[in-house]
Amino acid sequence: MIITLESSDLCADPRLADYISLKDVQLRSTLEPERGLYMAESSKVILRALRSGHRPRSFLMAPRWLDELTPLIEEVTGSADGGDVPLFLAPESLLEQITGFHLHRGALAAMQRPALPTVADLLASARKGHPARRVAILEDLVDHTNVGAAFRSAAALGIDAVLVTPSCADPLYRRSVRVSMGTVFQVPWTRIEKWPAMDDLHEAGFTVASLALSPHSVSLDEFVTLPSVTAPDARLALVMGTEGDGLKKRTLANCDVVVRIPMSANVDSLNVAAASAVVFWATRHLGADISEQ
């Protein structure tokens, strides 16, 4: 149903509660998982979310975006006006009052958060129903931008699945989704309940490689020539550490190998998002066919 908002008084509608205080990261990071929702921002991201089979709770947009999104809204809901799904229309100034920021991309959708699979189930089926061969693990990243960028690289470079640790920032937080350009909907992922426990990975035959500066590390150039990477049945898990402190000591102790990216010009390391892209590219021969992603 289309609901036209004409004054901030109408923001008392309880169905708009999903959109209030979107800039409050601490609040939203707790509230959204508790309510079982996430926010899709921009028409492109909304399209990707809906085409991935995610269910909308409601839409909020400026009128000028309605024509672009109507065909897909009709496809998903069975009605051009959203049917039972509220479709809120408001001028951009009112959208800013509701959300707390300037919605320059013009459209938002409150989406139902899908249930996450277990780690074992994900590893067994992430590659189009077949076992994953190459996965990424994001350990305790706190910056949603880095999480989104890592997912975008994972999608572009054929990573089969992403695992995030208990303290890692939410891949479905609005900024993560936006930076990923909606690729968080394309790459299978789940959250690890206990870390750095690696039993599921080792039982599934994965070599666990942590990216870190360490006296005992091997260079990425050497690593990609090792039998654990080049064997026809090789399965690889690549662990990326938090932005400040890097990987935990227990993680390094539990992994099978520590890998470093060769550096020049006295630069000691790359940002975690950049490092993930480099490592994903270097190990791409284990990835799914990029043209199929």
Number of DSSP E strands: 12
CATH topology of the largest domain: Alpha/beta knot
Helix content bin: 25-40%
**Dominant shape:** elongated
Average pLDDT score = 88
CATH architecture of the largest domain: 3-Layer(aba) Sandwich
Task: Say which CATH homologous superfamily of the largest domain is assigned.
Answer: SPOUT methyltransferase, trefoil knot domain
- At the first level of CATH, the class of the largest domain is Alpha Beta
Count of discrete structural domains:
2
Measure the end-to-end span.
34 Å
**Poorly predicted runs:** none
Strand % is 15-25%
| Strand order within the widest beta sheet | 8-7-6-11-9-12-10
Q: How many distinct helices?
A: 12
Comma- or semicolon-separated keywords:
2 domains; single chain; 293 residues; Alpha/beta knot; seven-stranded parallel β-sheet; five-stranded mixed β-sheet; 60s Ribosomal Protein L30, Chain: A; 17% strand
Q: How would you describe this protein?
A:
- By secondary structure, this protein is of the alpha/beta class.
- It folds into two domains: 2-112, 60s Ribosomal Protein L30, Chain: A (2-Layer Sandwich); 119-292, SPOUT methyltransferase, trefoil knot domain (Alpha/beta knot, 3-Layer(aba) Sandwich).
- It is 33% helix and 17% strand.
- The strands form two sheets. It has a seven-stranded parallel beta sheet with strand order 8-7-6-11-9-12-10, sandwiched between helices.
- Helix 2 runs parallel beside helix 3 and helix 6 (144-156) runs parallel beside helix 12 (272-282).
- The two termini are 34 Å apart.
- The mean pLDDT is 88.
